[in-house]
Amino acid sequence: MSTSQQPDPKDRPARLTVGVVGAGRVGPALAASLQLAGHRPVAVSGVSDDSRRRAEHLLPGVPLVPPAEVLARAELVLLTVPDDTLPGLVEGLAETGAVRPGQLLVHTSGRYGAKVLEPALRVGALPLALHPAMTFTGTPVDVQRLAGCSFGVTAPDELRLAAEALVIEMGGEPEWVAEDMRPLYHAALALGANHLVTLVAQSMELLREAGVAAPDRMLGPLLGAALDNALRSGDAALTGPVARGDAGTVAAHVTELRRHAPQAVAGYLAMARATADRALAHGLLKPELAEDLLGVLADGGAGPDGTDGAPGAEGDAR
Question: Of 101, 109, 196, 208, whose CB count within 10 A is highest?
Answer without folding.
Answer: 109
